[in-house]
Amino acid sequence: MKRDPSRAQAIEPASTRDGHRRASIGARRSPQAEEAILDAARALLAERGYSGFSIDEVARRAGAGKPTIYRWWPTKADLFIDVYSAEKSAALVPPETGALWSDLLAYTRALWAFWRDTPSGRTFRALIAEAQASTPALVALRDKFLPERLKDVRHMFDEAAARGEIRPEAVPHLLPLYIGFNWYRLLTDQIADDPEDITIMARTLAGTPQ
Amino acid sequence: MKRDPSRAQAIEPASTRDGHRRASIGARRSPQAEEAILDAARALLAERGYSGFSIDEVARRAGAGKPTIYRWWPTKADLFIDVYSAEKSAALVPPETGALWSDLLAYTRALWAFWRDTPSGRTFRALIAEAQASTPALVALRDKFLPERLKDVRHMFDEAAARGEIRPEAVPHLLPLYIGFNWYRLLTDQIADDPEDITIMARTLAGTPQ
Amino acid sequence: MKRDPSRAQAIEPASTRDGHRRASIGARRSPQAEEAILDAARALLAERGYSGFSIDEVARRAGAGKPTIYRWWPTKADLFIDVYSAEKSAALVPPETGALWSDLLAYTRALWAFWRDTPSGRTFRALIAEAQASTPALVALRDKFLPERLKDVRHMFDEAAARGEIRPEAVPHLLPLYIGFNWYRLLTDQIADDPEDITIMARTLAGTPQ
Amino acid sequence: MKRDPSRAQAIEPASTRDGHRRASIGARRSPQAEEAILDAARALLAERGYSGFSIDEVARRAGAGKPTIYRWWPTKADLFIDVYSAEKSAALVPPETGALWSDLLAYTRALWAFWRDTPSGRTFRALIAEAQASTPALVALRDKFLPERLKDVRHMFDEAAARGEIRPEAVPHLLPLYIGFNWYRLLTDQIADDPEDITIMARTLAGTPQ
DNA sequence: TATTAATCGAGACGGTACGTCTCGTCTTTTT
DNA sequence: AAAAAGACGAGACGTACCGTCTCGATTAATA
Asked: Which UniProt key words apply to this protein (chains A, B, C, D) (predicted)?
């Protein structure tokens, strides 16, 4: 049978949602496919949360084949991790109030607001949950995201040490206490914006009499 | 027809695993069924972890009908919560070393060992994860289990306050820092028994120079 | 313990639908219970058809216990049979047109209308279907309902024989042909009111040239 | 990676009963799966009758996933219809005795024997029953199977008309009487082999004095 | 009059099927 | 070689009925 050139015209490069079709680009990873998959996954996650996040639905929305997804993200957790990492991290500019306790207060309020009010923030809970069942998720969480996102926090404590507010050796001891406090609050859904509550924690950690 | 006392004997009380049958005891919940289901669920959880924990399998093992399970535990999370609550809590006797930092050191080491080495401990991670997707699980975790299991911890801090090691008002501020630290370590799988590591945390919280 | 007359007042004889309760009347079958069950079954059948006809729902509606139903109607088919038999049979007065073919025409049209337009009529299909899986239903259908309801039909043929239209010995041969024709039409859902169509059959059976 | 011809061998074509697995053959319906499912359904139907015919059991026996079944047979009735249509139709050679009445006698006796003695025959009752609850089954029965299987019957009457035994216009009037008679007997379980009984019907229909 | 026996509503029980959902693998066809 | 497409086995999900079995209350018939 002869090649039918009109069929090629019928094939569109974009999403399949509206009937279009993303053709293969040959023996190379298709950036379009990757993009479409990540977009679909992101949107799905934002719309229906982690419980509604399924590979089947991502494939449907992305107009992608499931094997295409599994080829690049061996497991559901891997895709989830990538989606999470592609999210715009919290627009959290580390505050410069001149005192550790007030820095912590400002930063924590912003962080909790982000966790509460953005899909990406809410997804973080799911990532922690996923990490309890999936080693890749755990590794990604612990070794990839945390170090990156903790830079700002570390910066605050380092500055405080530079100002002489706390001893420099204390920084690595205080960090996990601060992180843990926030996680504990997040995971028990106690991250309402309560400045007094946060202030107490901040002053306790900063060693400032209240 | 005469009463036949032997009929009561004809009714098998126990599991259906080997073909026996647990008869109804009337229009009231059967303690035997409940027991069998919780036992099966507990065993399944210990054997295969939370990911292998399914209502179907619990029903199979318990020799129970699935509707019987759903009648009493409307959701999988509810059963899981009940199973967890039936678990023997950590046999953690709060230490009495005479100093907060060493109390914390001893208690934390024991707690981490429990988390590491017992199925029940490992299940706690799953409960926290489940709580991120299920409101009942969250409520149970936050309002039912935590208050109960935190008594010992609170006791340690109260004793320290009584000894004058820390200010009494500081106790409710220090508690979430301590809990959060432990959760953070558990959830990132960093609960190896490292006495030095734990000591640092303990001294930081206790305000004792190291 | 003394008899408490006030308790008897608390017990209402009627349906449980609105919270009332039908107490036992002693070691005899309760006509009220039977009535309530048959009523509920009849209503359910009319409302939801045979596929929606379940013992559970009948018990619910009747405010009866399931064992009460099973005590008197050992199987679902038995209850169904009773319900069917309690239905008012078709108000089919055998016509007296003076000729077999026109008697058959009139009777068949009325029968098909009954089958089409009344719940009871529609239920007859279900009874035939049920009879294919349940021996009691088969026996009831064949030996209980058919003889009864065929009286009118037989009467028409007998009259025709008396008038000399057909030979008397032919009656038992023609009957099953007539019945079978109607069943075939009913079971293949071909019982629209088509006078011509029916006339052809009637004339064929009556031996009248068309 | 080189093509590994042995891989094709690694894929078991047959049933999964013993742990083997029927691999996908791409984005097209798998004839093997279809075959296995129909085989299993046929066997199950023969073994346990229609009441024992369940999708779950078919899936189990076929080593197929339930969704695979539901993908191709949206409803239980659809699968049943397909199974029935795959059954070998009755090996009923239309007799050529030279007279309608004796043709009918021979044919009817063979038909009843088939209905009595073969699973497929017994299944026909279930199909008629199913058709009373399921429109697809009704349509399939009326418009698919009947026209096909009535060819032989029609042939007998046509031949009789050709021989001048009956008027040609009478054929379509006699057919439903003959079919209906057989159905009526089948559905009331009155298809014992009674030559005299059948002869009477045959002579009545053929218009032959007995 | 006290006991016995059968009835009642209620509803739990084990079991099984239903039809849907998702997982991760596999294969064909197209580029 | 990689893509889209989608079929596949597996099996969990939660619901609906089935028919059985107690329960505790109630009442007629029996002793």
From this structure: DNA-binding, Transcription, Transcription regulation
* Among the four given CATH numbers 3.40.1440.60, 1.10.10.60, 3.30.420.40, 3.40.720.10, the one describing domain D8-72: 1.10.10.60
Same CATH topology for C13-72 and C100-206: the answer is no
- Structure tokens belonging to residue D209: 């004095």
Annotate B88-118 with DSSP letters as a single string.
PPP--PPP--SSHHHHHHHHHHHHHHHHHH-
Left (φ > 0), alpha (ψ -120 to 50) or beta: where does B203 sit?
A: alpha
- B47 CB-to-strand F distance under 7 Å: no
Using CB atoms, list chains with 3+ pairs below 8 Å to chain B.
Answer: A
pLDDT tens-place values along chain B, 210 residues long: 333 333 232 323 333 333 446 777 777 788 899 999 999 999 999 999 998 999 999 999 999 999 999 999 998 889 999 998 877 665 788 899 999 999 999 999 999 999 999 888 888 999 999 999 988 899 999 998 999 889 999 999 999 999 999 999 999 999 999 999 999 999 999 999 999 999 999 999 998 765
What residue has token string 């009831």?
C140
User: Are D and B close enough to touch, i.e. 3+ CB pairs under 8 angstroms?
Assistant: no
CA distance C162 to D66: 63
Condensed to tens digits (0 to 9), the pLDDT of residues C99-131 reads: 999 999 999 999 999 999 988 888 999 999 999
In the numeric block, the tokens 């989830």 are attached to A80
Contact C107, C92 (CB under 8 A): yes
Show which positions of strand E are touched by protein (CB under 7 A).
Answer: 5-31
The whole-number Å distance from B118's CA to E12's C1' is 35
Residues A173 and A159 sit within 8 Å (Cβ to Cβ): no
Residue C49, Ramachandran bin (φ over 0: left; ψ between -120 and 50: alpha; else beta)? left
The CATH architecture of the domain made up of A5-72 is Orthogonal Bundle (1.10)
What are the tokens at C34? 């039977």
Structure tokens at C181: 């024709």
Fold for C13-72, please state it.
Arc Repressor Mutant, subunit A (1.10.10)
Q: What is the pLDDT of residue C12?
A: 32
List bases, strand F, within 7 Å of protein CB. Answer: 1-29
For B72 and E13, how far is CA from C1' in angstroms? 13
Cβ-based neighbours of B118, under 8 Å, separated by 6 or more: B90
Return the CATH fold of C100-206.
Answer: Tetracycline Repressor; domain 2 (1.10.357)
Q: Which residue is nearest to nucleotide F22 (CA to C1')?
A: B26
Asked whether the beta carbons of B68 and B32 are under 8 A apart, the reply is no
Ranges of each domain in chain B: 6-72, 100-206
Question: How far is it, in rounded angstroms, from Cα B157 to Cα B175?
Answer: 8
Which residues of chain B neighbour A191 with C-beta distances below 8 Å? Answer: none
Residues of C in contact with D146 (CB under 8 A): 188
- A99 and A208 in contact (C-beta within 8 Å)? yes
Instruction: Write down the pTM of the prediction.
Output: 0.81
**Distance between alpha carbon D16 and the CA centroid of its chain, in Å?**
27
CA dihedral (C164, C169, C170, C171) in degrees, to 10, reads 90
Burial class (CB in 10 A: 0-12, 13-18, 19+), D151: exposed
**3-state DSSP: chain A helix, strand, coil percent, rounded to 5?**
70, 0, 30
Token digits of residue B100? 């907060």
How does pLDDT run across C16-40, given as a tens digit for each residue? 333 446 777 666 677 888 999 999 9
Interatomic CA distance for residues D94 and D87, integer angstroms:
19
3-state secondary structure D139-177: HHHHHHHHHHHCHHHHHHHHHHHHCCCCCHHHHHHHHHH
Cα torsion D44, D46, D47, D49: sign: positive
CATH of B6-72, one of 3.40.50.10860, 3.10.20.30, 1.10.10.60, 3.30.420.10: 1.10.10.60
